[in-house]
Amino acid sequence: MNIEISGLTRRFGRAQAVAGVDLEAGPGVFGLLGPNGAGKTSLLRMMATVIPPSSGRLRLLGRDPGSQGQRREIRRGLGYLPQTLGYYPGFTVVEFVEYFALLKEVPPARVPAAVASAVERVGLGDRAKAKLRNLSGGMLRRAGIAQAIVNEPRLLLLDEPTAGLDPEQRVTFRTLLRDLGEQATVVVSTHLVEDVGAACGRVALMEKGRIAFDGTPAELISRGVGHGTGDAPLERGYSAVLQQVRS
Ligand SMILES: Nc1ncnc2c1ncn2[C@@H]1O[C@H](COP(=O)(O)OP(=O)(O)OP(=O)(O)O)[C@@H](O)[C@H]1O
Q1: Domain 1-77+153-213, what fold?
Q2: pTM recorded for the entire structure
Q3: Every domain of the chain and the residues it spans
Q4: What sign has the CA pseudo-torsion 43, 47, 49, 55?
Q5: Where do the ABC transporter domain residues begin and end (predicted)?
Q6: What ipTM does this complex have?
Q7: Distance of alpha carbon 241 from alpha carbon 236, whole angstroms
């Protein structure tokens, strides 16, 4: 299992962002849904080794992120696209992705090919030499995805990756997600239920720091039959689960 989590919590002062999560995941694309403030980003940040848990057990790629040496090994096999990623405006796309490849300790001889492949996979091949300050918001998001996949991670964590992507790019991106999920564990936090239906084999729905549903998209759809509100079957499943846990 690439992710092994039990009883995981995270507090920020008085706010209980994550309130006891149990989760195991191997390869595949895993969608993380939930309303604003449900705790998705906090959970992803713990899995990305960016913040430590307040309590509970967390093992990533079979290792303990609480140990400095093992954390370093995890980071070599990890890709993370945060909700907001800082960009150096004067960097070109290639320079930006290369910077992350070096941070993630990709062997230097392999860096140029790894960077070219990541840039190509997100459809920025023709903008490889463009400065980041000259890219659109959606293109910047794609550069962010390129840095996340440049080390061919076994654990890929994407926080709202399709925000800002145009419909054509979103469809292309879902194909990339499915490809990546053949080998890696890919966790995608999103507000777009279409992404989940099209690309995820499994979906969890978070509410108030806990997982209120964990199953296949088809199972989530079936929860909404005759219940829930929404225009699409997944939206009805989503709202039915939320109505149930809130009642
Ligand atoms: N750094 C922080 N300091 C204080 N409170 C925080 C911090 N990060 C998150 N929180 C709080 O923790 C809770 C969960 O937030 P989180 O960002 O994890 O939710 P989310 O599901 O990702 O929301 P969204 O869909 O809006 O991105 C919220 O109540 C939020 O205000």
Answers
A1: Rossmann fold (3.40.50)
A2: 0.95
A3: 1-77+153-213, 85-152
A4: positive
A5: 3-233
A6: 0.97
A7: 9
